Amino acid sequence: MSDQTRFLLNETDLPKYWYNVMADSPLPPTPVLHPATLEPVTPDFLSVLFPMELILQEISAERYIEIPEPVREIYKLYRPTPLHRARRLEQALGTPAHIYYKNESVSPAGSHKPNTAIAQAFYNKAAGTKSLTTETGAGQWGSALALACNFFGLDLEVYMVRVSYDQKPYRRIMMETYGAQVYASPTERTQFGRSLRAKDPESPGSLGIAISEAVEVAATSGGAKKYSLGSVLNHVLMHQTVIGEEALKQMDLAGEYPDVVIGCVGGGSNYAGLAYPFLRQNLKGGKHTRFVAVEPTATPSLTKGVYAFDFGDTAKMAPIVKMYTLGHSFVPPSIHAGGLRYHGMAPSLSAFCDAGYIDAIAVPQVATFEAAVAFARAEGILPAPESAHAIRAAIDEALDAKAKGEKRVILFNLSGHGHFDMGAYQAFLRGQLEDYAYPAEAVKEAMKELPQVVAKS
Ligand SMILES: *Cc1c(COP(=O)(O)O)cnc(C)c1O
């Protein structure tokens, strides 16, 4: 038996195509609705925010979409990423399970997010866009898009959720190093931001609010600026499938196939990126892998939300999609996994969860950091607090396999490293980290504001 620890691909193995799961999904696509009329959106409405090529990808039924050569050239700065067998973690747990992780923390921005940022910057540049706006939670998405905009010579305005802006000043400096402008959201720069700050000058912000600001700036720019989203949308999830396509080849190198594929979910992109190519093998290839999406108990959209049409943002300017949601006006507790503080979930992932193709679980903050520290001590990598949710679930799977005396093959996505999250680690190590109770009352209030969409078949 080989004792190989990392499974590496060559540059020549870099995927040439993204995988569009919609081509194989047995579930009908759900419509995207206009936030004011509640009618299906026209490409005209979306083209205020996005370049046409991305709109076409959003609604595409093509199974494979070719990755443009300039995008692949930049991917080569960090792709293919390694697949690791977590041998030392297995030993520490004393489990017969085999634990694998795909290491997306090796990208220059420290997460999976450049996989779509580079693609989005490319298509915007090709369409003549000069300037982009976006939101960022923990700063991972803003860093990734700043990196990508720099490569393609685009200006970038980043609306950064205030609580993260305060917790992570160095993420902001990283974005500025790549040449972006960064603002703590809610800001005084938008009508929506000013209205919130008039009511609550101390607002910690949320991804939903920051999205509203970035969308408002693009939508009122007279075409000068476009908007870029780091998760949730079909085209974003599709760009992330390079993760799973590589992992399929690497599991092959390891001579194994996963019984369970695990990932953390904020908007769903890193998990879909790993999971969808394996889901294809379930749908078309006769495989029987189990899929587990992991979210924080503080923002449990999949496990406690409703599957309904809702706005993508707090100000009701972004399109309405059908998804698991806690309500667009829900402001999540200030957990350290800023990238998971979103009220909704990607429509495709929501549909797969609703139909039982993918399971969801929620894990609390303190147990998540216990897993992060156990992983750091065994494997050496300090994971992002977001990724630590996947690690918690992977460890629990491995312990369950141990209890049952089963050899189980577990694959999870290490979506990023936590080098900018030392404040969170410090709080944990000093015993100052808290669990948040499920914010039932806040969710109940937010549910009252769901748009009244009459179901259309
Ligand atoms: C943004 C982020 C996430 C959550 O976003 P998804 O779209 O659900 O992937 C998870 N992990 C890391 C490291 C992130 O930066």
CATH topology of one domain: Rossmann fold
Radius of gyration based on Cα positions: 20 Å
Helix content: 40-55%
Q: Give me the side-by-side strand order of the main sheet.
A: 1-4-5-15-10-11-14
Number of helices: 19
The main β sheet shows up as: 7 strands, mixed
- What is the CATH architecture annotation of one domain? 3-Layer(aba) Sandwich
β-strand amount: 15-25%
CATH class of one domain: Alpha Beta
- Span from first to last CA? 54 Å
Mean pLDDT: 95
Instruction: Tell me the overall shape.
Output: globular
**Distinct ligands:** pyridoxal-5'-phosphate
Helix/strand structural class: alpha/beta
Low-confidence stretches: none
Number of strands: 15
Structure in words:
The chain has 457 residues and is of the alpha/beta class. The chain has a domain at 6-13 and 68-110 and 235-456: Rossmann fold. It contains 19 helices and 15 strands. The chain has helices at 43-47, 52-59, 69-75, 87-93, 114-126, 140-152, 162-167, 169-177, 191-199, 207-219, 234-239, 242-254, 269-285, 301-304, 347-354, 365-379, 385-403, 422-429, 440-447; strands at residues 6-7, 17-19, 64-66, 83-85, 98-103, 131-136, 155-161, 181-185, 225-227, 260-264, 290-296, 306-311, 320-325, 359-363, 409-414. The strands form 4 sheets. It has a 7-stranded mixed beta sheet, with helices on both faces. α3 (69-75) runs antiparallel to α5. The longest helix is centred in the last third of the chain and has 19 residues, at 385-403. The model has no long low-confidence stretch (mean pLDDT 95). Bound molecules: pyridoxal-5'-phosphate (PLP). Pyridoxal-5'-phosphate binds at residues 111, 113, 138, 140-141, 231, 264-271, 339-340, 384, 386-387, 415-416.
